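for the writeup, i need someone to sanity check this before i put it in the appendix. the sequnce is what the collaborator sent (i think, or maybe the updated version? ugh). structure was predicted straight from it, no edits. if anything looks off just tell me and ill rerun, i have time this weekend
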Amino acid sequence: MKSSNLFWGFFFITFGALYLIARYTSFAIDWYAIWDLWPVIIILAGVAIILKGTFVKPVISVLMGIAIALLAFGFFNDMFDAFDGNHFDRRYSRDISENYYKLDYDKNIEHVNLKIEAGAGKFEIEKTTDNLVKGYSRGNIGNYNFTSNNSDSVQWINISMDDIDNDFFNTSFKNDFRLQLNDNPTWSFDINIGAAKSYFNLIPFKVENLVLNTGAANTKIKLGNKSD
């Protein structure tokens, strides 16, 4: 088989697989860090030149196809938010922390009042979970603080940022937050966010009330008809 066929074959296979992973799973991939792999392309190109005409050339073509597909996918996803919508700032900061949060579901809870207070960043509410809430944050400007209390069949949950780094000269900040909710109780939302890019797919949930206060935001909200 020709080396060019191997290259393009593995390029499209890799690109398509990355799209499916980014679009239909919650698997987090840091596309900012992908750009740190660009020297691999130079190395593979050099090896391909040295080993031209040998049995190793097809292997190099396969590796080149995979590597360039990674860089191409990362470029389009980073620049144009084209696939999984995880882009907020194109520059990558290495001081990134990841945190996971969850609150177990109690079948006696019939209504949840959820309040979110945060600054600039990228915020998503989309998928359902067997927990009452399940959150994931990734960033370098502050952690999230979860507090909750309940009375009879009503639960109050407050999600807010703490230890915020207000260094406005740091243009490499990143603040991504994803939240999954249980679709059994009814929900009331009080969302207060700053300069954010947000996607709230509330179709799976029974929404009783929604209050949204934002700064310079690009916000997309989808509402269903599950409320009584």
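The radius of gyration is 22 Å. The first helix runs from residue 3 to 24.
thx in advance!!
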